[in-house]
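Proteins fold reproducibly. Take a sample protein:
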Amino acid sequence: MHYFALLLGPEPTDEPDVAAQAEIMAAYQNFHAAAGSSIRAGDALVSSAGAARISGGPSAPTVTDGPFAEAAEVAGGYYVFEADNLDAALELAQQIPACASGGVEVWPIVEWNQPESPLEGDNWLALLLEPADDAVAPGTPEWDACTVAHEEFGAVAGDRIKGGAALHPPATATTVRVRDGAVTLTDGPYVEGAEVASGFYLLHTSDRDEAVKIASMIPASTVELRQLAGVSKL
């Protein structure tokens, strides 16, 4: 099975400390060395200063530029794991360095569409958000209608879509945090606002303007568009 791990934490507001950055990079290198056989995709995200939130849906999109200072924790990266079950995925997630200062949301994936080759160039994570009460489950008529809408989007976006997945409803998610070596597992996603993740796309575009244009066509209540840092070649 595949699982989506969304890394959350406070967004740095000061100039990065070189020694601290080197320590963080070393921690992630150690994590990759230990968990590499289970990682199917992943990358850090560029600061939310360059992000965009697109609300209103494809019929009337409204674009709000980042940063999103109102959030105590923002997405800083993501992984896609392949694991035998949820317990195995949570075991992987608690080893992610982000758990020590923030948290990691772990979501079961309905179907993982993996990029055919490592992502290079200008790539973006388009995180699909919906009101928690509007979440739909696979196999329902509402899910089938959403699937048709996403197939229509895929026909328009074409090869700009490099990968992505739909997520199971928020009741299946787990938030992982580690403090002083103690692991805390909380049922459901970390919810600060009124919206929760329902899926994501990996987009390849010529620039930010094109990324916003493509993301505005996605059939979702809200899309948070974040540029991939390109530190991973997965």
